[in-house]
Protein backbone atom coordinates (compact mmCIF):
# COMPACT_ATOMS: atom_id res chain seq x y z
CA UNK A 1 0.00 0.00 0.00
CA UNK A 2 1.08 3.59 -0.60
CA UNK A 3 2.29 5.83 2.21
CA UNK A 4 -0.18 8.49 3.25
CA UNK A 5 0.51 11.91 4.72
CA UNK A 6 -1.60 13.89 7.17
CA UNK A 7 -3.23 16.72 5.17
CA UNK A 8 -2.54 19.13 8.03
CA UNK A 9 0.95 18.32 9.35
CA UNK A 10 2.27 15.97 6.60
CA UNK A 11 3.40 13.28 8.99
CA UNK A 12 2.97 9.67 7.88
CA UNK A 13 -0.45 8.25 8.77
CA UNK A 14 -1.92 4.82 8.14
CA UNK A 15 -4.75 3.89 5.79
CA UNK A 16 -6.99 3.41 8.84
CA UNK A 17 -6.36 6.82 10.45
CA UNK A 18 -9.38 8.71 11.82
CA UNK A 19 -7.41 11.35 13.69
CA UNK A 20 -3.77 12.18 12.99
CA UNK A 21 -1.63 10.70 15.77
CA UNK A 22 0.64 13.74 15.71
CA UNK A 23 -1.44 16.90 15.21
CA UNK A 24 -4.86 15.45 16.08
CA UNK A 25 -6.55 16.57 12.84
CA UNK A 26 -9.71 14.67 12.01
CA UNK A 27 -9.08 13.17 8.59
CA UNK A 28 -10.98 11.34 5.88
CA UNK A 29 -9.85 9.21 2.93
CA UNK A 30 -10.97 10.42 -0.49
CA UNK A 31 -11.44 7.22 -2.55
CA UNK A 32 -11.12 8.67 -6.09
CA UNK A 33 -7.69 10.22 -5.46
CA UNK A 34 -6.50 7.97 -2.61
CA UNK A 35 -5.64 11.08 -0.58
CA UNK A 36 -6.51 12.25 2.91
CA UNK A 37 -8.38 15.50 3.67
CA UNK A 38 -9.04 17.37 6.90
CA UNK A 39 -12.61 17.02 8.17
CA UNK A 40 -14.30 20.07 9.74
CA UNK A 41 -17.87 19.73 11.01
CA UNK A 42 -18.34 16.22 9.54
CA UNK A 43 -17.27 17.22 6.05
CA UNK A 44 -14.06 17.74 4.10
CA UNK A 45 -13.43 20.39 1.49
CA UNK A 46 -12.14 18.63 -1.62
CA UNK A 47 -11.30 21.32 -4.19
CA UNK A 48 -14.32 23.39 -3.25
CA UNK A 49 -16.70 20.42 -2.98
CA UNK A 50 -17.89 19.25 0.42
CA UNK A 51 -17.40 15.49 0.92
CA UNK A 52 -19.24 14.10 3.97
CA UNK A 53 -17.86 11.56 6.40
CA UNK A 54 -19.21 8.01 6.05
CA UNK A 55 -22.24 7.08 8.18
CA UNK A 56 -20.17 4.09 9.35
CA UNK A 57 -17.42 6.28 10.77
CA UNK A 58 -18.41 5.91 14.41
CA UNK A 59 -19.52 2.30 14.53
CA UNK A 60 -17.10 0.81 12.02
CA UNK A 61 -14.29 3.33 12.29
CA UNK A 62 -14.69 3.88 8.53
CA UNK A 63 -12.61 6.89 7.51
CA UNK A 64 -13.77 7.08 3.90
CA UNK A 65 -15.48 10.17 2.52
CA UNK A 66 -18.79 10.14 0.65
CA UNK A 67 -19.34 11.83 -2.70
CA UNK A 68 -22.08 14.44 -2.17
CA UNK A 69 -23.25 13.99 -5.77
CA UNK A 70 -24.46 10.48 -4.95
CA UNK A 71 -26.85 11.62 -2.20
CA UNK A 72 -25.74 8.61 -0.15
CA UNK A 73 -24.74 8.54 3.51
CA UNK A 74 -22.37 5.56 3.29
CA UNK A 75 -19.08 5.36 1.42
CA UNK A 76 -18.40 3.29 -1.69
CA UNK A 77 -16.89 0.38 0.25
CA UNK A 78 -20.22 -0.21 2.04
CA UNK A 79 -21.94 -0.61 -1.32
CA UNK A 80 -20.38 -4.02 -1.77
CA UNK A 81 -21.95 -5.45 1.39
CA UNK A 82 -25.26 -7.05 0.45
CA UNK A 83 -26.15 -9.41 3.30
CA UNK A 84 -25.30 -8.64 6.90
CA UNK A 85 -26.29 -9.75 10.42
CA UNK A 86 -29.62 -8.44 11.68
CA UNK A 87 -29.71 -5.47 14.05
CA UNK A 88 -30.08 -7.65 17.17
CA UNK A 89 -26.97 -9.76 16.45
CA UNK A 90 -24.66 -7.30 18.19
CA UNK A 91 -21.62 -9.58 18.52
CA UNK A 92 -21.81 -10.47 14.82
CA UNK A 93 -22.16 -6.79 13.90
CA UNK A 94 -18.94 -6.06 15.76
CA UNK A 95 -17.21 -8.64 13.60
CA UNK A 96 -18.73 -7.01 10.54
CA UNK A 97 -16.97 -3.78 11.55
CA UNK A 98 -13.64 -5.67 11.72
CA UNK A 99 -14.23 -7.35 8.41
CA UNK A 100 -15.39 -4.15 6.72
CA UNK A 101 -11.97 -2.74 7.53
CA UNK A 102 -10.25 -5.54 5.59
CA UNK A 103 -12.81 -5.08 2.82
CA UNK A 104 -11.75 -1.42 2.46
CA UNK A 105 -8.16 -2.55 2.04
CA UNK A 106 -9.27 -5.00 -0.62
CA UNK A 107 -11.42 -2.48 -2.50
CA UNK A 108 -8.60 0.06 -2.37
CA UNK A 109 -6.11 -2.41 -3.84
CA UNK A 110 -8.41 -3.62 -6.62
CA UNK A 111 -9.08 -0.02 -7.57
CA UNK A 112 -5.38 0.82 -7.37
CA UNK A 113 -4.53 -2.12 -9.65
CA UNK A 114 -7.03 -0.71 -12.13
CA UNK A 115 -9.23 -3.81 -12.09
CA UNK A 116 -12.87 -3.41 -13.13
CA UNK A 117 -14.80 -2.70 -9.96
CA UNK A 118 -18.57 -2.60 -9.90
CA UNK A 119 -21.03 -3.13 -7.09
CA UNK A 120 -24.11 -5.32 -7.38
CA UNK A 121 -26.07 -2.07 -6.82
CA UNK A 122 -24.97 -0.82 -10.22
CA UNK A 123 -24.88 -3.97 -12.29
CA UNK A 124 -26.50 -7.38 -12.01
CA UNK A 125 -23.96 -10.10 -11.25
CA UNK A 126 -21.31 -7.58 -10.15
CA UNK A 127 -19.47 -7.81 -6.85
CA UNK A 128 -21.43 -8.36 -3.62
CA UNK A 129 -20.49 -9.62 -0.19
CA UNK A 130 -22.82 -11.55 2.08
CA UNK A 131 -21.32 -11.35 5.53
CA UNK A 132 -22.90 -13.53 8.19
CA UNK A 133 -21.70 -15.13 11.38
CA UNK A 134 -21.95 -18.90 11.78
CA UNK A 135 -21.96 -18.36 15.57
CA UNK A 136 -24.90 -15.93 15.51
CA UNK A 137 -26.85 -18.11 13.05
CA UNK A 138 -26.04 -21.39 14.80
CA UNK A 139 -25.21 -23.13 11.51
CA UNK A 140 -22.15 -23.15 9.25
CA UNK A 141 -21.60 -20.28 6.82
CA UNK A 142 -19.54 -21.58 3.92
CA UNK A 143 -16.99 -19.09 2.65
CA UNK A 144 -17.18 -19.02 -1.13
CA UNK A 145 -18.11 -17.29 -4.37
CA UNK A 146 -21.02 -17.77 -6.76
CA UNK A 147 -22.04 -15.42 -9.59
CA UNK A 148 -20.41 -12.33 -8.13
CA UNK A 149 -21.60 -12.96 -4.58
CA UNK A 150 -18.90 -13.66 -2.02
CA UNK A 151 -20.00 -15.23 1.27
CA UNK A 152 -17.87 -14.60 4.34
CA UNK A 153 -18.18 -16.15 7.79
CA UNK A 154 -17.67 -13.26 10.22
CA UNK A 155 -16.90 -15.76 12.99
CA UNK A 156 -13.52 -16.23 11.29
CA UNK A 157 -12.52 -12.78 12.46
CA UNK A 158 -12.25 -14.29 15.96
CA UNK A 159 -8.54 -14.97 16.27
CA UNK A 160 -8.83 -18.14 18.38
CA UNK A 161 -11.35 -19.67 16.01
CA UNK A 162 -9.45 -18.81 12.84
CA UNK A 163 -6.16 -20.00 14.32
CA UNK A 164 -7.75 -23.30 15.38
CA UNK A 165 -9.02 -23.83 11.85
CA UNK A 166 -5.62 -22.93 10.42
CA UNK A 167 -3.96 -25.61 12.54
CA UNK A 168 -6.65 -28.22 11.87
CA UNK A 169 -6.33 -27.65 8.13
CA UNK A 170 -2.54 -27.59 8.24
CA UNK A 171 -2.39 -24.13 6.65
CA UNK A 172 0.69 -21.92 7.12
CA UNK A 173 -1.38 -18.73 6.72
CA UNK A 174 -5.00 -17.80 7.32
CA UNK A 175 -6.35 -14.24 7.61
CA UNK A 176 -9.55 -12.38 6.83
CA UNK A 177 -7.76 -10.31 4.19
CA UNK A 178 -6.45 -13.56 2.71
CA UNK A 179 -10.03 -14.91 2.49
CA UNK A 180 -11.21 -11.76 0.75
CA UNK A 181 -8.31 -11.85 -1.70
CA UNK A 182 -8.91 -15.50 -2.50
CA UNK A 183 -12.67 -15.18 -3.02
CA UNK A 184 -12.38 -12.10 -5.18
CA UNK A 185 -9.99 -14.15 -7.33
CA UNK A 186 -12.94 -16.41 -8.21
CA UNK A 187 -14.93 -13.33 -9.19
CA UNK A 188 -12.18 -12.01 -11.47
CA UNK A 189 -11.61 -15.38 -13.09
CA UNK A 190 -15.31 -15.49 -13.90
CA UNK A 191 -15.49 -11.99 -15.41
CA UNK A 192 -12.04 -11.67 -16.98
CA UNK A 193 -11.07 -15.18 -18.06
CA UNK A 194 -14.27 -17.18 -18.46
CA UNK A 195 -16.19 -14.41 -20.20
CA UNK A 196 -17.63 -15.43 -23.59
CA UNK A 197 -14.90 -15.30 -26.25
CA UNK A 198 -12.27 -14.75 -23.56
CA UNK A 199 -8.85 -14.92 -25.22
CA UNK A 200 -7.15 -16.12 -22.07
CA UNK A 201 -9.33 -19.13 -21.39
CA UNK A 202 -7.27 -21.71 -23.30
CA UNK A 203 -4.07 -20.60 -21.64
CA UNK A 204 -5.79 -20.65 -18.26
CA UNK A 205 -6.91 -24.25 -18.80
CA UNK A 206 -3.42 -25.27 -19.87
CA UNK A 207 -1.94 -23.91 -16.66
CA UNK A 208 -4.62 -24.57 -14.06
CA UNK A 209 -6.61 -27.42 -15.62
CA UNK A 210 -10.13 -27.57 -16.99
CA UNK A 211 -12.48 -25.62 -14.74
CA UNK A 212 -15.46 -27.56 -16.12
CA UNK A 213 -14.47 -30.56 -13.96
CA UNK A 214 -17.13 -31.32 -11.34
CA UNK A 215 -16.62 -29.05 -8.36
CA UNK A 216 -18.71 -31.13 -5.97
CA UNK A 217 -16.69 -34.27 -6.81
CA UNK A 218 -13.49 -32.27 -6.29
CA UNK A 219 -14.57 -31.14 -2.81
CA UNK A 220 -15.51 -34.67 -1.77
CA UNK A 221 -12.22 -36.02 -3.05
CA UNK A 222 -10.19 -33.28 -1.37
CA UNK A 223 -11.74 -33.72 2.06
CA UNK A 224 -11.53 -37.50 1.83
CA UNK A 225 -7.97 -37.94 0.51
CA UNK A 226 -6.34 -34.53 0.99
CA UNK A 227 -3.77 -33.09 -1.39
CA UNK A 228 -1.46 -35.39 -3.38
CA UNK A 229 1.93 -36.08 -1.74
CA UNK A 230 3.85 -34.12 -4.36
CA UNK A 231 1.55 -31.05 -4.34
CA UNK A 232 4.50 -28.72 -3.70
CA UNK A 233 5.83 -29.45 -7.21
CA UNK A 234 2.97 -27.62 -8.90
CA UNK A 235 0.85 -25.74 -6.38
CA UNK A 236 1.19 -22.80 -4.01
CA UNK A 237 -0.94 -24.52 -1.34
CA UNK A 238 -2.72 -27.79 -0.60
CA UNK A 239 -6.07 -26.11 -1.06
CA UNK A 240 -5.08 -25.08 -4.59
CA UNK A 241 -4.95 -28.76 -5.59
CA UNK A 242 -8.68 -29.20 -5.08
CA UNK A 243 -10.01 -27.78 -8.34
CA UNK A 244 -8.70 -25.50 -11.14
CA UNK A 245 -10.87 -22.68 -9.76
CA UNK A 246 -9.22 -22.95 -6.36
CA UNK A 247 -5.78 -23.02 -7.92
CA UNK A 248 -6.50 -19.79 -9.79
CA UNK A 249 -8.06 -18.11 -6.71
CA UNK A 250 -5.07 -19.08 -4.56
CA UNK A 251 -2.66 -17.64 -7.13
CA UNK A 252 -4.77 -14.51 -7.42
CA UNK A 253 -4.67 -14.03 -3.63
CA UNK A 254 -0.88 -14.48 -3.67
CA UNK A 255 -0.60 -11.94 -6.45
CA UNK A 256 -2.43 -9.43 -4.23
CA UNK A 257 -0.19 -10.36 -1.27
CA UNK A 258 2.94 -9.74 -3.34
CA UNK A 259 1.89 -6.51 -5.00
CA UNK A 260 0.58 -4.95 -1.79
CA UNK A 261 3.58 -5.92 0.32
CA UNK A 262 6.06 -4.73 -2.29
CA UNK A 263 4.26 -1.44 -2.72
CA UNK A 264 4.26 -0.89 1.06
CA UNK A 265 7.99 -1.59 1.20
CA UNK A 266 8.76 0.55 -1.86
CA UNK A 267 6.51 3.43 -0.76
CA UNK A 268 8.41 3.51 2.53
CA UNK A 269 11.65 4.04 0.61
CA UNK A 270 12.99 0.55 1.26
CA UNK A 271 16.03 -0.54 -0.75
CA UNK A 272 17.64 -3.92 -0.27
CA UNK A 273 21.31 -4.23 -0.87
CA UNK A 274 21.73 -7.74 -2.21
CA UNK A 275 25.49 -7.11 -2.26
CA UNK A 276 25.39 -7.28 1.53
CA UNK A 277 24.19 -10.86 1.35
CA UNK A 278 27.02 -13.39 1.21
CA UNK A 279 27.92 -14.81 -2.17
CA UNK A 280 25.54 -12.62 -4.01
CA UNK A 281 26.49 -9.39 -5.67
CA UNK A 282 23.39 -8.47 -7.61
CA UNK A 283 21.99 -4.98 -8.01
CA UNK A 284 20.07 -3.28 -5.19
CA UNK A 285 16.41 -4.18 -5.02
CA UNK A 286 13.83 -1.41 -4.78
CA UNK A 287 10.38 -2.99 -4.66
CA UNK A 288 7.53 -1.09 -6.27
CA UNK A 289 3.95 -1.45 -7.34
CA UNK A 290 3.67 -0.82 -11.04
CA UNK A 291 5.40 -3.74 -12.70
CA UNK A 292 4.30 -3.53 -16.32
CA UNK A 293 2.93 -6.43 -18.37
CA UNK A 294 6.45 -7.44 -19.49
CA UNK A 295 8.05 -7.06 -16.05
CA UNK A 296 6.80 -10.13 -14.25
CA UNK A 297 10.30 -11.63 -14.02
CA UNK A 298 11.63 -8.49 -12.33
CA UNK A 299 8.70 -8.50 -9.96
CA UNK A 300 9.35 -12.10 -8.95
CA UNK A 301 13.05 -11.46 -8.47
CA UNK A 302 12.28 -8.42 -6.30
CA UNK A 303 9.78 -10.46 -4.34
CA UNK A 304 12.35 -13.15 -3.60
CA UNK A 305 14.56 -10.62 -1.78
CA UNK A 306 11.69 -8.80 -0.11
CA UNK A 307 10.09 -11.94 1.31
CA UNK A 308 13.48 -13.33 2.34
CA UNK A 309 14.13 -10.12 4.23
CA UNK A 310 10.73 -10.05 5.95
CA UNK A 311 10.88 -13.74 6.83
CA UNK A 312 14.22 -13.13 8.53
CA UNK A 313 12.78 -10.13 10.37
CA UNK A 314 9.85 -12.17 11.65
CA UNK A 315 12.17 -14.95 12.83
CA UNK A 316 14.23 -12.32 14.63
CA UNK A 317 11.07 -11.56 16.57
CA UNK A 318 10.42 -15.25 17.24
CA UNK A 319 7.44 -15.25 14.89
CA UNK A 320 6.43 -17.36 11.90
CA UNK A 321 7.59 -16.38 8.43
CA UNK A 322 5.72 -13.45 6.96
CA UNK A 323 5.44 -15.37 3.68
CA UNK A 324 5.59 -19.11 4.42
CA UNK A 325 5.30 -20.25 0.81
CA UNK A 326 7.60 -21.36 -1.99
CA UNK A 327 7.13 -20.08 -5.52
CA UNK A 328 8.69 -22.68 -7.84
CA UNK A 329 8.77 -22.47 -11.63
CA UNK A 330 5.35 -24.05 -12.14
CA UNK A 331 3.72 -21.71 -9.62
CA UNK A 332 5.64 -18.77 -11.11
CA UNK A 333 4.06 -19.49 -14.51
CA UNK A 334 0.63 -19.44 -12.90
CA UNK A 335 1.37 -16.15 -11.16
CA UNK A 336 2.66 -14.74 -14.44
CA UNK A 337 -0.70 -15.62 -15.94
CA UNK A 338 -2.50 -13.77 -13.13
CA UNK A 339 -0.21 -10.79 -13.81
CA UNK A 340 -1.25 -10.95 -17.45
CA UNK A 341 -4.95 -11.11 -16.54
CA UNK A 342 -4.61 -8.14 -14.19
CA UNK A 343 -2.45 -5.95 -16.42
CA UNK A 344 -4.54 -6.61 -19.52
CA UNK A 345 -7.73 -5.69 -17.64
CA UNK A 346 -6.19 -2.51 -16.33
CA UNK A 347 -8.21 0.62 -16.94
CA UNK A 348 -6.52 4.02 -16.82
CA UNK A 349 -6.02 4.84 -13.15
CA UNK A 350 -6.38 8.35 -11.83
CA UNK A 351 -3.00 9.31 -10.45
CA UNK A 352 -2.97 11.11 -7.11
CA UNK A 353 -1.90 14.73 -7.55
ZN1 LIG B 1 -1.25 15.63 11.42
ZN1 LIG C 1 -17.55 3.82 4.94
UniProtKB/TrEMBL annotation:
<protein>
    <recommendedName>
        <fullName>Zinc-ribbon domain-containing protein</fullName>
    </recommendedName>
</protein>
<dbReference type="Pfam" id="PF15887">
    <property type="entry name" value="Peptidase_Mx"/>
</dbReference>
<dbReference type="InterPro" id="IPR031321">
    <property type="entry name" value="UCP012641"/>
</dbReference>
<dbReference type="InterPro" id="IPR011201">
    <property type="entry name" value="Zinc-ribbon_6_bact"/>
</dbReference>
<dbReference type="Pfam" id="PF10005">
    <property type="entry name" value="Zn_ribbon_DZR_6"/>
</dbReference>
<feature type="domain" description="Zinc-ribbon">
    <location>
        <begin position="4"/>
        <end position="86"/>
    </location>
</feature>
<dbReference type="InterPro" id="IPR024079">
    <property type="entry name" value="MetalloPept_cat_dom_sf"/>
</dbReference>
<dbReference type="GO" id="GO:0008237">
    <property type="term" value="F:metallopeptidase activity"/>
</dbReference>
Amino acid sequence: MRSFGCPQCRINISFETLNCWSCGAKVGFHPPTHRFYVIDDDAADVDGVSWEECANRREWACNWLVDPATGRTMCDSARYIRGRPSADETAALEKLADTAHWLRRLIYQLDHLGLPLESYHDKEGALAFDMFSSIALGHPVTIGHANGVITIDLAESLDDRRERLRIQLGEPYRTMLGHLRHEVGHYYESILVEKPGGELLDECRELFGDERASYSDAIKHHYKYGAPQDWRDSYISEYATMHPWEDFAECFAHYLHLTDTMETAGASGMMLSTARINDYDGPPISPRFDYGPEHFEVMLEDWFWVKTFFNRINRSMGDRDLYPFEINDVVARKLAFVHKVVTSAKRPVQQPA
